[in-house]
């Protein structure tokens, strides 16, 4: 069984209002009002003086559960939204591996599910650890990216991107930690063009978005053997408040039990959102031993994913 042993996060100190970003990239005042009033966005965190490797290692360096156990890390994985995250020949993952003294770990990236790749990486690393059969072995998953191009700074009419990062320490076993109870992922390949979809496909994607995500969440709950009423929290990707509140109404889940507090202050941090939200929820005492919670994310392309854990 896969278990999360620890999650640590890093939110850069630089705070940038979405008005400032919008003006630089050519957003109109009307578009900015949509982002702020309708989607609940306000500001994002940016780190212009830090590299991606530094952002990733900053999250991991705060993880006390890793200290003294670095030699046990077998897999170091960066779950990414974008296929290219730095100009050639930079390799942020290998740089972070060096900064953390983890050169012995197998390092690779996962990008196939876009913003849902973080959940894919958790499942994949758990499978690798179980196949290895060493109960002492650990896996470390990085999430988060730089907004280093114009297209990486926002999703039109949907959200603005931030540079927060998260590190997730994984192991096998069913004692301690947060145990993975189910993982469901469904790809709607007809929308594979993502940001470059033709208008008719983009319109259709909006029509099926809620329905498909609701189905994936329902399947994850069924596979975990719990009802929606037993679900303590949903930890979503921070695309915007509006889409999650609409989904909550559709499935009959209370808005106050969807953790949306970070949306106005972090924006959408690529694959890191659910883990940043997890850290915030735990720090605020919103999860107690035995509680079930669900992480959910949608990646352009289009992959819908949900994971149920028991705290």
Automatic annotation (TrEMBL):
InterPro entries found in the cross-reference section: ACP_syn_III_C, Thiolase-like
Keyword Acyltransferase: yes
Domain Beta-ketoacyl-[acyl-carrier-protein] synthase III C-terminal residue range list: 221-310
Database matches in Pfam families: ACP_syn_III_C
Keyword Mitochondrion (UniProt): no
Signal peptide start-end: none
Domain of life: Bacteria
Keywords: Acyltransferase, Transferase
Protein's name according to its UniProt entry: 3-oxoacyl-[acyl-carrier-protein] synthase III C-terminal domain-containing protein
């Amino acid at each position: 069984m896969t278990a999360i042993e620890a999650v640590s996060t890093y939110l850069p100190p630089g705070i940038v209002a979405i008005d400032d970003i919008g003006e630089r990239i050519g957003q109109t005042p009307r578009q900015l009002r949509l982002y702020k009033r309708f989607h609940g966005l306000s500001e994002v965190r940016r780190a212009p003086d830090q590299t991606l490797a530094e952002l990733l290692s900053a999250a991991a360096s705060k993880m006390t559960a890793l200290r003294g156990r670095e030699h046990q890390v077998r897999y170091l994985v960066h779950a990414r939204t974008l296929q290219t995250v730095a100009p050639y020949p930079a390799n942020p993952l290998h740089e972070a591996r060096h900064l953390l003294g983890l050169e012995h770990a197998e390092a690779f990236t996962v990008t196939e599910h876009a913003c849902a790749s973080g959940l894919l990486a958790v499942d994949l690393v758990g499978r690798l650890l179980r196949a290895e059969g060493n109960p002492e072995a650990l896996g470390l998953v990085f999430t988060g990216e730089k907004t280093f191009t114009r297209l990486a700074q926002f999703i039109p009419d949907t959200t603005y991107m931030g540079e927060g990062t998260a590190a997730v320490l994984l192991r096998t076993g069913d004692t301690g930690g947060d145990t993975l109870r189910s993982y469901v992922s469904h790809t709607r390949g007809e929308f594979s063009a993502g940001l470059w979809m033709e208008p008719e496909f983009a319109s259709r994607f909006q029509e099926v978005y809620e329905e498909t995500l609701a189905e994936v969440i329902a399947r994850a709950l069924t596979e975990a053997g719990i009802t929606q009423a037993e679900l303590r929290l949903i930890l979503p990707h921070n695309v915007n408040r509006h889409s999650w509140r609409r989904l909550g109404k559709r499935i009959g889940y209370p808005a106050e039990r969807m953790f949306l507090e970070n949306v106005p202050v972090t924006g959408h941090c690529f694959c890191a959102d659910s883990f940043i939200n997890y850290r915030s929820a735990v720090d605020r005492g919103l999860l107690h031993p035995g509680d079930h919670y669900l992480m959910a994310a949608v990646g352009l392309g289009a992959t819908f994913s949900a994971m149920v854990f028991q705290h």
